[in-house]
Amino acid sequence: MAPNFSSGVKRVAALVLLAVLAALPASAGVTQVKLKLPLKPRLPLRGNEKVALAPFVIATEAEKARDKRLQNVDLQAEFQRFLKKQIEKKTKLEIVELPTDLKLPTQNLSELGRSTEFWRALGTQTGAEILVSGSLEFRVEDRSGYKTEEYVSPIDGRTYYRQVYVEQTGFLFDIVFLVFDGRSGEKILQDEFKDFRQTGGRRADELQGLFENLFSLENQILNLFVARDREAERYIFTD
Amino acid sequence: MLRKFALVVGAAVIAAGCSSYSRTDKAQTQISFGSSVARRGLWREAAFRFERAVQQEPNNARAHNNLAVALEAEGEFSRALAEYKRALELDPGDSYIRRNYARFAEFYTSYTRTTGKATGGP
Questions:
Q1: How many Å from the N-terminal Cα to the C-terminal Cα in chain B?
Q2: Which of A118, A175, B46, B99 could form a cystine bridge with B38, CB 3.0-4.6 A?
Q3: B88: distance to nearest CA of chain A, Å?
């Protein structure tokens, strides 16, 4: 019995070796590398300009009355604080303070982009070379509900469909940036960033959700003002 | 017997050495050297090597793929796109080139959408 067993093992080992050798040419000569893709800043800046952060139009202001969860979030203040901190920390731009009682000439985004006189006057008054404004939208999206699910019965092995209740809450953040030239008042850039984060349940914290959205957009927002890089993985052939 | 064996081994070693020396101008040598510097993050040198490989063997899909990756690392995105397309034309079935191209296309689409132009172009 022993010799039979031994020859069996040898045969299996030989087969394994053959399989490994057969697989080698497919993977040999290729390696995965990590890159940092350099992203040029989207605004043509020197890098040390004076920047003023004007208020943003809050697109979800009317919903506050309907959704109690939004009442806990001061979107304007939180976003301004986040943006100011990021610009101060990660760029060489100089933040210029604006009058605290500054009011936008309109709550309509298209009209805001065309308010050349307003932006020119603000630029002259504050000495800001670049003025930043736009609109913010932050929603708590409840997508809970019944969903169709496929399942295989352990009794007869057949596939059935059943309705299951799935509790899902997510936070949607949508920001439109309008950037103006402080001297001419002309709009020099308009850009939009969106992020949706799904959370575990209905009790997810709104502020935490907001900052998760913001941190995921951080690189893109900063890339408006300064060069950033983005990590990527690619394959290169080695022979 | 032992002497004969030693002679054969010696001849084999010399032959191997000669063959690798004679390959210095070949695309394969450029790819091999380029990939080793790329792994150390020296992308400019790698791009130079892969460019040489492409000049030596214009129909080598692997050389075009590697050059595309190096150009991406250098921020030359529109040139990288052209090289990926060429690599895929030459070897449409290669799964590594296809995966690279898919990942690059995803990045490049969002990049050009947000910048409104293809940077790194001529």
A1: 66
A2: B46
A3: 14
Centre a 10 Å sphere on the Cβ of residue B105 and count the other Cβ atoms it contains.
Answer: 12
For chain B, 122 residues long, give each residue's pLDDT as a single digit of tens. 556 655 555 555 444 444 443 445 689 999 999 999 999 999 999 999 999 999 999 999 999 999 999 999 999 999 999 999 999 999 999 999 999 999 999 888 877 765 554 444 33
What class is the B2-115 domain?
mainly alpha
Integer Cα distance of B79 and B122 in angstroms: 8
Interface confidence (ipTM) of the complex: 0.77
Q: Which residues of B touch A (CB under 8 A)?
A: 28, 31-32, 35-36, 38-39, 43, 62, 65-66, 69, 72-75, 77, 96-97, 99-100, 103-104, 107, 111, 114-115, 119
| Angstrom distance (rounded) from CA B53 to CA B64 | 8
Distance CA A158, CA B28 (A): 55
Amino acid at B11: A
